[in-house]
Specification:
The complex is a heterodimer. By secondary structure, chain A is of the alpha+beta class. Chain A is elongated and about 45 Å long. Chain B is α+β, with helices and mostly antiparallel strands. Chain B has 2 domains: 249 residues, no CATH class; 122 residues, Alpha-Beta Plaits (2-Layer Sandwich). In chain B, a hairpin with a 5-residue loop joins strand 12 and strand 13. The radius of gyration of chain B is 25 Å and the shape is globular. Classes of the chains: A alpha+beta, B alpha+beta. At the A-B interface, strand 2, strand 3, strand 4 and strand 5 of A face helix 10, strand 16 and strand 18 of B.
């Protein structure tokens, strides 16, 4: 059977971006329950590679990715394309860079 | 050790907190009120300009409440990263407000303040000795960069604040401080486990952002021998395992290992438990003392002066050609002024104004665009001239198939250009090795 494709927003309850210092942009994806957290982890849809593709940056610009069971969280960090407050920076707090993650496709497990 | 209770009134002093929440929080009999007043998060401007992050009204209003309740309870008040950047001007500004409140309320206490500024020569000698390394800036800190740097501070650890408290201070106004350290200083000085105190400080420093619903409000932490408890001041909020664990991740890259001045926090073995509906218990946070003591430097340089112009575009034919038109007017300005001494940028809201290069959606689907013309030049007059030239050319730009020949952009304001003043940029975000945690941070005492 063909599984209907869901998006990250169907699983996570917080998806946010924020500065981690002037040169890093960190994304937190938080889940309300273990099942949603596990489903996204097992789908392997959130990887350094998928994040690099989603944001159109080379993979070496993804500085880290952590899976954090204690917080039911996945945490991804990008190098900021433009340092905070440098000419051309569009988001001083880095708090509006999360939107593409909302619609990241999460393939359903095979039935 | 008996437990030590820390009340943090808000995430950033000057951003407000609830009066009821403060009153309820005080009923938990805190041993100290500790609050953070700044960070690099609002950008390089405040360190560069010396302008405080929040208004004098807000700072005085909130400090008045905190001084009143802390003196009444006979407990110390600690403020970290005073004024926003924690530079000397910000510390002096805050200290002056504290003195004024003391006079007005008839309070007397022992006041301490701690500067965190780093003299350029001190940093240069550290660079020469190899005592400075890059943190995340991706450029080395050089003597030339330090010559350009007009303001430089270092993030103090908990030690200078603890020393001020040990010196009998009732009120401590700290310059730039590592956020968690400012909150953790009192419990550590009174013998709390530094790992638990520092992790509690990390969560408390954002006030009730670790609660549900989150907000700029009162949060209380109680550190015991081998765990700590968190509870929001407001009865309308609760601490949950999710909200507290999530906050451990906030604004940090590595959720498990977090370096700070003279230490590294290992949070990989942390446990979070819901002990009551509104209280969360945290254990397992470990403080690893490092052999060397490194502090983070934050410096800014003056890059020039900014003028901006805000304009709206509604014409579909103009929207369809926006990329080419903006390229043309930029190139024309460079020819007109026969100079490259300025920077011209465009924020195109409705295209990629929010995300810039990170925007995955490349086609414009909006029926209107918001445009910010952004110019930085060596002086204000020049920046204004370039911004005006660019906005004027855009207004009267001719393109084939143009229906509307009377003007391409809608300016919401007259004048259409706004001078935004000096433009500061980070020039240092590096680590510097110290011989002693206290050496950069002189403490001053005064009986108020």
């Amino acid at each position: 059977m063909v599984a209907t494709e869901k998006r990250l927003r169907d699983f996570a309850h917080i998806i946010r971006s924020k500065n981690a210092g002037p040169y890093r942009l960190t994304f937190d994806i938080l889940f309300r329950d273990d099942a949603s957290f596990r489903a996204v982890c097992e789908s392997q849809a959130v990887t350094k590679d998928s994040i690099a593709r989603l944001y159109g940056v080379p993979i070496d610009q993804v500085s880290s990715l952590f899976v954090v069971p204690m917080g039911r969280a996945i945490k991804v960090t990008l190098r900021r394309p433009i340092g905070q407050g440098d000419f051309g920076d569009t988001d001083i707090y880095g708090c509006q860079q999360h939107a593409p993650l909302l619609d990241l496709p999460i393939p359903a497990e095979e039935a | 050790m008996s437990s030590i209770t820390v009340l943090t009134p808000t995430g950033t002093l000057g951003y407000g907190f609830g009066a009821d929440a403060l009153e309820r929080g005080m009923q938990l009999r805190p041993d100290v009120i500790a609050v953070d007043a700044g960070s690099t998060d609002p950008g390089p401007h405040y360190l560069g300009s010396g302008e405080p992050l929040v208004s004098r009204f807000s700072m005085k209003r909130e400090l008045s409440d905190l001084l009143r309740v802390s003196r009444k309870a006979g407990i110390p008040l600690v403020v970290g990263s005073a004024g926003g950047s924690g530079c000397r001007r910000h510390v002096d500004w805050t200290v002056e407000i504290v003195r004024e409140i003391a006079r007005e309320q008839g309070l007397s206490f022992k006041l301490a303040w701690i500067y965190a500024d780093v003299a350029p020569e001190r940093a240069k000698s550290a660079v020469a000795r190899g005592d400075v390394k890059d943190f995340e800036a991706d450029f080395p800190l050089t003597e030339e960069m330090l010559d350009e740097t007009i303001a430089l501070v270092a993030q103090m650890g908990h030690e200078p604040i603890a020393a001020a408290l040990d010196g009998g201070a009732d009120v401590v106004i700290g310059g730039r401080s590592c956020d968690d350290s400012a909150i953790a200083a009192f419990p550590i000085a009174r013998g709390a486990d530094p790992g638990l105190a520092m992790h509690m400080g990390k969560i408390l420093e954002c006030g009730a952002f670790s609660a549900e619903p989150f907000g700029m409000d009162v949060m209380v932490g109680i550190v015991h021998d081998d765990y700590f408890l968190l509870e929001p001041g407001s009865a309308d909020r609760r601490a949950s395992v999710t909200s507290v664990a999530a906050h451990t991740l906030y604004e940090r890259e590595d959720p498990f290992l977090q370096p700070g001045p003279g230490h590294s926090m290992d949070l990989s073995q942390c446990r979070f438990e819901q002990v009551t509906d509104r209280r969360v218990k945290v254990s397992g946070s470990r403080f690893i003392k490092t052999d060397e003591y490194w502090v983070k430097l934050e410096g800014v340089r003056l890059a020039g002066y900014r003028s901006i112009s805000i304009a709206g575009i509604r014409c579909p034919t103009m929207i369809a050609r926006i990329d080419g038109i903006l390229g043309d007017v930029q190139a024309e300005a460079i020819r007109y002024f026969a100079s490259n001494a300025f920077e011209i940028g465009f924020r195109v809201y409705g295209r990629d104004g929010v995300m810039g290069k990170l925007e995955p959606q490349r086609t414009i689907t909006s029926h209107e665009l918001g445009l910010v013309i952004d110019v930085v030049a060596p002086d204000q007059e020049f920046a204004h001239a370039v911004a005006h030239h660019v906005s004027g050319n855009l207004l009267h730009y001719h393109f084939p198939g143009q229906f509307n020949t009377s003007g391409n952009v809608a300016f919401p304001y007259s004048p259409s250009e706004i001078d935004a003043g000096p433009n500061f940029r980070f020039s240092a975000y590096h680590l510097m090795r110290l011989q002693s945690p206290l050496e950069l941070f002189p403490i001053h005492f005064e009986d108020v």
